[in-house]
């Protein structure tokens, strides 16, 4: 979130499931062969732009 004026990325190494995808979050999912970007419906344009840049 950028609510506090900054954008952070953290790694989640535990078991992932679809329930982890929240409508106010962005997730970069990397399975070793492909990278997927989850853009929650309530994410801001700034967050989306930063997520695209981070996923590259």
Structure in a nutshell:
This protein has 56 residues and is an alpha+beta fold. It has one helix at 45-55, and strands spanning 26-30, 35-39. 2% of the residues are buried.
Folded structure, characterized:
It is a single chain. With 56 residues, the protein is of the alpha+beta class. It has a domain at 19-55. 20% of the residues lie in helices and 18% in strands. The longest helix is centred in the C-terminal third of the chain and has 11 residues, at 45-55. The two termini are 19 Å apart. Residues 11-56 form the Gelsolin-like domain. Keywords: Repeat. This is Gelsolin.
Structural category is alpha+beta
Molecular shape: globular
Biggest β-sheet: strands ordered side by side in the sheet: 1-2
Radius of gyration: 11 Å
Percent helix: 10-25%
Question: Which residue ranges are poorly predicted, with pLDDT under 50 across at least 5 consecutive positions?
Answer: none
**Number of strand elements:** 2
The average pLDDT value, as a whole number, equals: 84
Distance between the termini: 19 Å
Q: Work out the helix count.
A: 1
Largest sheet: 2 strands, antiparallel
Percentage of β-strand residues: 15-25%
* Strand/helix succession: EEH
Draw up the topology in text.
Elements: E1 26-30, E2 35-39, H1 45-55
Antiparallel strand pairs: 1-2
Summarize this structure as a short list of keywords or feature phrases:
56 residues, two-stranded antiparallel ribbon, 20% helix, 18% strand, phosphatidylinositol-4,5-bisphosphate binding
């Amino acid at each position: 979130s950028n609510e506090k004026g900054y954008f952070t990325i953290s790694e989640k190494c535990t078991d992932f499931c679809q329930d982890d995808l929240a409508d106010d979050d962005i997730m970069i999912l990397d399975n070793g062969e492909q990278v997927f970007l989850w853009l929650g419906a309530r994410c801001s344009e700034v967050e989306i732009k930063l997520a695209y840049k981070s996923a590259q």
